[in-house]
Structures are given as structure tokens and as C-alpha cells.
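ok here's DNA-binding protein, seq below lol
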Amino acid sequence: MQNGAMLGSGDSRMAHALINPLVPSREDSAQARAAQAALGRDEAGRATLVLRVGAEGEERTLDLPPLVTSMLKDLLRTIAAGKAVSLIPLEAEITTQQAAELLNVSRPFVIGLIEKGSLPARMVGNQRRLPLQEVLAYKAENRASRREALAELAEQDRALGLE
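and the structure came out like this:
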């Protein structure tokens, strides 16, 4: 399956998933921890997962590809920690409000980033749409820059004996 095959750009389910992620219950988290523990025994990452599908007596099995197995392990880790999850294709486009929520900034700040050329966007009617992949890349670059600046400050503190 190609990226984005599950939900298309502009799909209202994508917007719903981004704004309303699935929040695991305590029982969900406990079951995820148990499944994660069972998968955790595969230290080399070579285990193949087999999915049983169908009603009892009419079951069939499906071998899951390594990509899905890897994603499932990440999903279980997140749910086991009690964190909310969303599944959104990287090719999706999001609104300025969704980008602001993702970046933990205000919507006017996102609009400023667009106007400065820091984030690409296109107009759909009178609304801006941003490629999710670009917003995530900006977030990662921003985080890396902050960490680098913090490391520099820590080094300056050490050099000045201010630890």
C-alpha cells in the first residue's frame, strides 16, 4: 500500500484524526503492554506477525509485512504509555489551525511562517492548506536548532565555570 492510500488529502477523516486522536483507556494500555511484552522478546526484530481474521471456525491468517510490524510495535509502545494516537498519511494537507496545534504555536504565528516562506502553503478558496510532511519537517528542524542552541549555552556555562 502506498503512503496516503488510507486517507486522501483533504479527507475529513484526516482532519478528525488530527484533531480528535484515539485516547486509550487503562484497559487498552494494559493490553498494549502485554502485547508489547510478547513482541519485546524478539530482540533481533525478525519476528513475523500473523493476524487471525474472521469468526471462530472460519479464521484465516495473514502475514503482516515488516513495515506494518514495525508500525504496530510503535503503536503498541505509544498506547502502552497511555498516549493518544492518530494515523495520518504524510501526503495529507492540514489547515493553519491544525498546523498551529501540531507546532504548539498560534495560528497567526503559522501564517507569519507562511508569509516569510518558512512553510509552504496553497490556497483552497480563502483557506490555506499546508503539506503535513513540510510542517513535520519544520518541527523537527526547529527542535534540532533549539537543542543545538541549548548545547552551545551549556558549553558556554562550562567554559565560564557556571555549571
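fwiw The longest helix spans residues 132-160. kinda neat tbh
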